[in-house]
Amino acid sequence: MDNWCELNRTPLLRPPRDPAAAPQQVTCTVFDEQSDLIWAGDSTGFVASYAETVLAPYTRFRAHERSVMQILSHPKGVLSTDGLTLRLTSRRGLIISQWTKDDFPEFEAISRIVMTGPVEVLLATRAGLVKFDTAKGMITMTTPYFGDVILMTSNKRHAAIGKKDGFIDIYDVRTGSIVRTFATNSTTLTDMDLKEQTLVTCGMTRRHGVFSSDPLVNVFDLRTMQGLAPIAFPPGAYFVRLHPKLPSVIMIASQGGQMHCVDMFDPTKIFLAQIDVGPELLSFEISSTGDFISAVDAFSLHHLWAHNPEHSTMSNRAPLDYASLPEPPSTRTTIDDDIPLNTIGMPHYRETLLSAWPTQTIFRSAGTIPKQIDNSILASARQVGPGIFEASYDKAKYGKRNMAKKYVKVAGSSASGKFLSSKTVSPTKTSRHPEASMEEDAFEFKCESNTSKVPNAFKKLEILYSKFGIDDFDFDYYNQTKFSGLECHVDNSYTNALLQLYRFVPEIFNFAVGSLAIENLNQDSLLTELGYLYDMLVKADGKHFRATNFQHTLSSIGEAYEVGILEKDHSSVNGHTITDLVQRSQWFNIFLLNKLLSDERVSKQPLGLQPELGDILGVQIQHQMRRVYTDEHKSAATLKLFLEVTSPRANNFEKTPHIPAQPDVIQYIESSMNRFEHERVQDTRAARYDIQETLHQVRRIPTVLSCNIILTSEEKRQIRNTRDWLKKKFHAGWSKNGYFLTEHIRGVPSGTASYFEEYELVGFVAEISGEAEKDTHLVTFVQMKAEGSDTKNWYMFNDFLVIPIPEEEALNVSYWWKTPVTLVYRNSNSPSEFHYDAWKNGLNDEILYRDHFAAGTRESKKIEYELLTKQEAPHPGSLVAIDTEFVTIEEEQFEIRSNGTRSLLKPSNQALARVSVLRGDDGDKFAVPFIDDWVVVKENIHDYLTTYSGIEHGDLDPLTSDKALVTRQVVYRKLWLLLNLGCVFVGHGLTKDFRTINISVPKSQVRDTAVFFYKGQRILSLRFLAYVLLDKKVQEGNHDSIEDAHTALMLYKKYLKLQENNQFEETLERIYQEGQILRFKPPGEE
C-alpha cells in the first residue's frame, strides 16, 4: 500500500466577514459511500459537500442550531447530529426526516451514532443504547447503558463502544447485550475502527500532568475476543483506520500529520508519509474503496490524498443530480459573399488544431504488442536459404497483411455471456436480451461477403460467473428451441459436438436409452452413461445440461489415456493428448463406438441377448491381397463401426466417367468403399522384396453410416472451391465392381447396379477455426423434424448455443473457417421414430429393493435406513423427500484485482458424497428413509465441508469408513429409477443438488420448499424456516442429510396445510417480517 500522494488542498470554510466574530471550524468529515462526495460539518451547524477529486462545492445547508457533532453516510443521503437532533438529509440538501427528544424521549443528549445496518443506526444517549430504524422512523431496541461514551464504531454485527476511561465494551447488535469488555493502556481514547472481526484503538496517557499520544495501537480479535500484539507508532497515534479492502492494513496518523501504512501481519512493511498540516490534524478518514484519504487541519484546510489516482474511485459512483442549465438562445449566422467564415466563433480548445499540424507529421505506435504467429503458419514454413524461411499465408483466414486488428473487449461481447442480474425487463422490448445488438448478436450466422470474420454464432463460447455464480448466467438467452445444449466447462468438452450428433440419430438414441433397462453397475460403462445423458437431454426440454458423469467415466478408462483423447492431464504413464482437434475428435469417435460395442456385449451376454450395435453401425469390409511377383492371393473380412473417408486420389480410385475432376463428398465416400493400395513387403521365403496390392472393399453398408472425413490442407482448399460439396442424400447400389454411389438415380445407365438404397444426411460435426489456435472448436449441425410437422429443419449446436439455421447455410463448407469432421448418413427406409421410453422394455428395478455396497465396505457398517419392499413399489405421484451432501474436489478460482475486488473465474468442483431419500406418502412408514448411501469418492478431496455436509475425513474411503458405501453408478441408478417411475421429489434448494448429481428433473416432479417460501430477493434457509414454521431447531451440529430431508418434508406438509386454509400469503409475510428482525437466522446462531 505504497504510492500514496497528495492530490490537492482546499479550504473548506470561508473567513468570517466580521473580524470580531468567532472563527468557524470544521468539526467532522466523512466520505459518502454511494457518490463521489466528501461531507463536512462545522461549528455553526452547517453541513457541506464537495464533489469529485477537485472538491468542487456541491451543497451547503444549515442542518442544526449547534455545532455538528457527527456525520454518517446513509443510502439516502447523510445522517447528522448535534447532540439534540438527528437529521437525515438528501444529497441535494433537502431534509428527509428529523427526530428530536420531543419525538422520542430516548433521544435526549445524543453523544455518538453509528450505522449497524443499511438503514439502522445505534445511538448512545442518556437513556442508554438505542437502535433506531431510519426508514420506518421507529425505535427497534433499547438497552440500558451507563457510561461516558466518546467513540463508537461497528461492523454491522458488533458495535465497539469507547468510554472516556479508556475501556471498550463490545455490544452485540442482534441481542442487545454487552458480550465483552476490553481494557486498553490509554487514559482516554482518541480514535478506533472496526472492520470485519478486527478492532484497533489509540489514545492518550497522562504523564506528569500532561496528556500525550500513546506510541502503540491496540489490536483486538472479535472472533476469539482476545487482544493481539500492538502496533508500534513512535510519533504517537491520534487517528487510526483499518483499510476497507485489505483488513490487515492499518492507517495510523499523529496530530502532527505523520502517517504510517502498516501491515499487521508484517509490521516491517511500512509506508511513511507526512501530511503538511498546520498546528494540528483535526480529522482523518479513509474512503469505503480504500483509495482516498481525507485530512483536515486546524486551519480548516482539507488535504486529499490518493493511492494510484488514475485508477481509483471514492465510492460506488452513483450519479449526482445537478441543476438544469438553460440552453443558450440559438443564433444563426448567414454566410454569404459579404460575411466571412471567421465570424462564426469556435469553442475553447487547448490542443493544436488539425489545420495547423505540420505536413510532415508522422504517427508512431507507442509500443503495440505484436500479434502471435499462428502455429499452422509455422508448421508450413520451409527453409529456402541459410537462416531464411518462407511460409504460406492464408489471406482468407488472416486478412490483409500488416493490418492492425481492432481490440475487442471480452466483457460485454456476445461471447462473454449474459447475466440474469443485469437483465432489465421492459414490456415494450421484444428482443431476447436488452444488450443485444446487430454487432454483438450471438445468433448472427451469416458471413459478410467483404470480410473473413467468423460470425458470432460460430465463435467459441465461454461461461462467465458473476458474484451469484452459475445460476446468474443466462443460458436461456442462447437457446430458444426445445433441444438442450451442453455446457462447455467440463473436462473434454470437445466431445459435446459428437455426443449431440449421435443424440439425433434415432437408431443410436433408441439403442443407448433402451440399454438402461438392463442393470449395469460397472464403473467404466460408457453405454450406460450415454443412455443416462440422452435421457436427461430429453427431460431437460431445452434447458442447458452438462455431461459431468459421462466425462467422469470417460476419464476413468485407461484406454482413453493411451489413445490420447483426454484433454486433462491425468498423469498417466502412457498418457498423451492428440493436439490436433480434428484428429482427436475422430479418434474419440472410433473409441466411443468400439467401447459401446464392448459394453453392450458385457451387459447382454450374461442374459443371452443378441448385440444390436453391430447391425446398426457395422461396416463389413472385405480385404483382398495379392503379391505381384508370386501371384499369391489372400482375403480377410473385418467389421468396423465407422468408415474412414479420404479423397479418391488418396484411395488410388480408378477414374471413371462419373468421377469429376473436383469430386464431392459422394465420390469421396464411394472411393473409400473401394480403396486400393500397394506397398513394398519382404518375401521371407525368397529373401527378396515383393509388391503387395490390397483392395479394401465394403460389402455391406449399415443402417447408420458414420464417416470420419480425413483431409489434407490442399484437399480442404479444393472442397471450398467445389460448389455443393456436401450432399444431403445419396443412393447406394451394388455392382460387380463394388458399391456404386450417386446423388440421383435418374440418368444412371440401366444395369449399373442391381438395387439402390437411399441414404440421407442426419448431421455432421464441423471444425470452426479461429485466427488463434485457442479459438478453434467443434460445432454440430443436425436435421430434425419440427414439432407437430413432417418438415425437417436444420439446427446448429455450439455447446449451449442452439439455433435453427437454413439448410443452404448448414451445408455450405466453402468458408475458410468451416471444415467437416464426422458425417452421419442413415438409410431413409429405416424407421425414424425416437423411442423416448425405450428404457421401459424389460426394466430392471431390483436395485431399489436390495443393497449393492462398494467393494471393500466393512461388515460393521452402520445402516440407518429401511429398504423398500415390493408392496411399496414407487408409482407416478409417490412423494419422496431427498437431501444430498457434497465434498469439494477442486476449489474455486478467483481473480483478485489491484483494488481488492475479486471476480469468480471458475466455481468449485464438487462430488456427490451422500444421498438420503425418505418415504413421503402418508402411512405407517411416513418419513422413514429407504436410501442413505455414502458414495465412494476416488479423487483427492480438497474440502470435506464438514460443517455443512457432516462428512468427515475417512467417511468415503472403503478402508476406513463404517458407512454404507456405494459407487456413484449405484446411487445414480436408484435416483434415475425414482425419476422415471414418476416419483415427486421434495427438498430444499434442489436446483444445486440436481445439478451436482447430474440429473434433470421436470418441474412437475419437484416440490422445492426454498421456492414455495420465497418472496423478494432473499432465499430463506432450511434452518430458519424450521424455526419459524415448525418451532424446531435443526443443523445445530454437523448437517445430517436424513434430518434435512425430514425437515423439508414437514415444511412441504405445512405449506399444503397453509394453502388449504388460505393462510399462506399472510404467513409468508409474517415470516419475512420476523426474518428482518432476526436477520433471517434463529436466535443464538452465530
Automatic annotation (TrEMBL):
Positively regulated by the regulatory subunit PAN3. GO terms for molecular function: metal ion binding; nucleic acid binding; poly(A)-specific ribonuclease activity. GO terms for cellular component: P-body; PAN complex. It comes from the Eukaryota. Its EC number is 3.1.13.4. The keyword Kinase does not apply. InterPro entries: PAN2, PAN2-PAN3_catalytic_subunit, PAN2_N, PAN2_UCH_dom, Papain-like_cys_pep_sf, Ribonucl_H, RNaseH-like_sf, RNaseH_sf. Binds 2 metal cations per subunit in the catalytic exonuclease domain. It catalyses: Exonucleolytic cleavage of poly(A) to 5'-AMP. SUPFAM superfamilies: Cysteine proteinases, Ribonuclease H-like, WD40 repeat-like. One of its GO terms (biological process) is mRNA processing. Residues 878-1061 form the Exonuclease domain. CDD domains: PAN2_exo (cd06143). It is found in: Cytoplasm. Pfam families: PAN2_N, RNase_T, UCH_1. Forms a heterotrimer with an asymmetric homodimer of the regulatory subunit PAN3 to form the poly(A)-nuclease (PAN) deadenylation complex. Catalytic subunit of the poly(A)-nuclease (PAN) deadenylation complex, one of two cytoplasmic mRNA deadenylases involved in mRNA turnover. PAN specifically shortens poly(A) tails of RNA and the activity is stimulated by poly(A)-binding protein PAB1. PAN deadenylation is followed by rapid degradation of the shortened mRNA tails by the CCR4-NOT complex. Deadenylated mRNAs are then degraded by two alternative mechanisms, namely exosome-mediated 3'-5' exonucleolytic degradation, or deadenlyation-dependent mRNA decaping and subsequent 5'-3' exonucleolytic degradation by XRN1. Belongs to the peptidase C19 family. PAN2 subfamily. The linker, or PAN3 interaction domain (PID), between the WD40 repeats and the pseudo-UCH domain mediates interaction with PAN3. Contains a pseudo-UCH domain. This ubiquitin C-terminal hydrolase (UCH)-like or ubiquitin specific protease (USP)-like domain is predicted to be catalytically inactive because it lacks the active site catalytic triad characteristic of thiol proteases, with residues at the equivalent structural positions that are incompatible with catalysis, and it cannot bind ubiquitin. It functions as a structural scaffold for intra- and intermolecular interactions in the complex. This is PAN2-PAN3 deadenylation complex catalytic subunit PAN2. It comes from Cyberlindnera fabianii. The lineage of its organism: Eukaryota, Fungi, Dikarya, Ascomycota, Saccharomycotina.
